[in-house]
Design goal:
The chain has helices spanning 12-22, 47-59, 72-83, 99-114, 128-137, 156-163, 188-201, 218-231, 265-279, 286-296, 298-330, 337-340, 352-362, 381-391; strands at residues 29-30, 92-98, 119-124, 140-145, 147-148, 153-154, 171-175, 204-209, 234-240, 252-259, 345-347, 364-365, 371-373. The chain has 394 residues and is an alpha/beta fold. It folds into 2 domains: 11-45 and 305-391, Alpha-Beta Complex (Aspartate Aminotransferase, domain 1); 65-296, Type I PLP-dependent aspartate aminotransferase-like (Major domain) (Aspartate Aminotransferase, domain 2), CATH 3.40.640. The strands form 4 sheets. The protein has a 7-stranded mixed β-sheet, with helices on both faces. Strands 1-12 form a two-stranded parallel sheet. Helix 4 crosses helix 5 and helix 7 (188-201) packs parallel to helix 8.
């Protein structure tokens, strides 16, 4: 039986991580893996998470199952964090999932259940796992223009033109903030243009939001998502707590479905519970419980928001420092887009050959499409990277 299995392609980011580990050079820079790192190259546990874990140790007296959709209290705090008071609770169904990836997978399956012929419109480029999961599920993917390689910004006109080809019953996958892998985001006027297209075509938006708080702040990063759910009849949201709570390994995510027709709440909630049962039954609880404790405790929440804001400002500072270092090294402002982008990632917009040259000649590791993790930099490595980029003719 197993002799018929075919070798699967290696995950490019995981392969890059191994190459970095195997590189014996002392001066090497890892800008590949999408994990936040502090100035010492460490991914710390946030103070509020530590405090919540200590409190949980004292009060938790069982590890029994919670429920197919997780703890309702987790859904409540996450809905509040993401949507605020945009919609009444009876318009919203939600289920905890194993990380944001689990939410994305469940969302695709939900769309396929609703429409077996569904097509998913995805930005070009997008997070590679979007494409991998869609291929695995056998769901048709339609790319839409997003990144302008010349300006390193959003090709808004091309995006709108391509999205106008979507139809009712199809899904438009959008990045809620901090676009991965480009770092190029829409402004609120452009988001309204996208909403106008969605309303005209009848297509359903699916929002993948994995970096709330990493871009312009918690509420500003949630603003496009809130505008969409207020404006369109139905929305799917896949959210992750890995980055903004720093609980990567706890696999804490949530899938949210909104419907302005509140009579759909029951069937939507039941479908989310059904999907959880088919895939993993009960979702992980530890990370979700920590998030719930933090968001429901004024002191813990204030400390979490302070540390998250410090993290955000640190990444903005790194962006500005890198843009300035490249301006000094190149004598031009052609890398000024780095300071304008938001989140952990930006895309240099160069060729895979130049990316290979950066790695071979200077020990700089980034994904082949030239996506670099800004959080992988520090004050010491920024000038090294800037000189390497110019030396390689990027």
């Amino acid at each position: 039986m197993f002799a018929s299995l075919k070798e699967q392609p290696a995950d490019k980011i995981l392969a890059l991580m191994q190459m970095f580990k195997d590189d014996p050079r002392e001066q090497k820079i890892d800008l590949g893996v999408g994990v936040y790192k502090d100035a010492q190259g460490h991914t710390p546990i946030m103070r509020a998470v530590k405090a919540a874990e200590k409190a949980l140790w004292d009060v938790q007296d069982t590890k029994t199952y919670v429920g197919l959709v997780g703890d309702v209290a987790f859904s409540d705090v996450m809905i509040d964090l993401l949507l605020g008071k945009t919609l009444p609770r009876d318009a919203i169904a939600a289920a905890a999932t194993p990380g944001g990836t689990g939410a994305v997978r469940q969302a695709f399956e939900l769309a396929h259940m609703a429409n077996p012929d569904v097509r998913i419109f995805v930005s070009d480029p997008t997070w590679p796992n979007h494409l991998s999961i869609l291929k695995h599920l056998g769901i048709e993917m339609v790319p839409y223009r997003y990144f302008d390689a010349e300006s390193r910004g959003v090709d808004h006109a091309g995006m709108l033109e391509d999205l106008s080809r979507a139809t009712a019953g199809e899904i438009v996958l959008l990045h809620g903030c901090c676009h991965n892998p480009t770092g190029a985001n829409l402004n609120m006027v452009q988001w309204q243009d996208v909403i106008d297209v969605l309303l005209k075509t009848g297509a359903t938006p699916m929002i993948d939001i994995a970096y709330q708080g990493f871009g312009d702040g918690l509420d500003d990063d949630a603003a496009p998502t809130r505008l969409i759910v207020k404006s369109v009849p139905e929305t799917i949201i896949a959210a992750s707590c890995s980055k903004n709570f720093g609980i990567y390994r706890e696999r804490t995510g949530i899938l949210i479905v909104t419907a302005q027709d509140t009579s759909l709440k029951g069937v939507n909630q039941g479908t989310l519970a059904y999907l959880n049962r088919q895939n993993f039954s009960f979702p992980p609880d530890h990370g979700a419980r920590l998030v719930t404790m933090i968001l429901n405790d004024k002191t813990l929440r204030a400390d979490w928001e302070k540390e998250l804001e410090d993290t955000r400002l640190s990444m903005l500072s790194l962006r500005k420092q890198l843009a300035e270092a490249l301006q000094n090294a190149s004598g031009s402002n052609r890398f000024g887009f780095l300071a304008d982008h938001r989140g952990m990632f930006s895309r240099l917009g160069t060729t895979s050959d130049k990316v290979d040259l950066l790695r071979e000649k200077h020990g700089v590791y980034m994904v082949g499409d030239s996506r670099l993790n800004i959080a992988g930099l520090n004050a010491q490595t920024i000038p090294i990277l800037a000189n390497a980029i110019i030396d390689c003719g990027i």
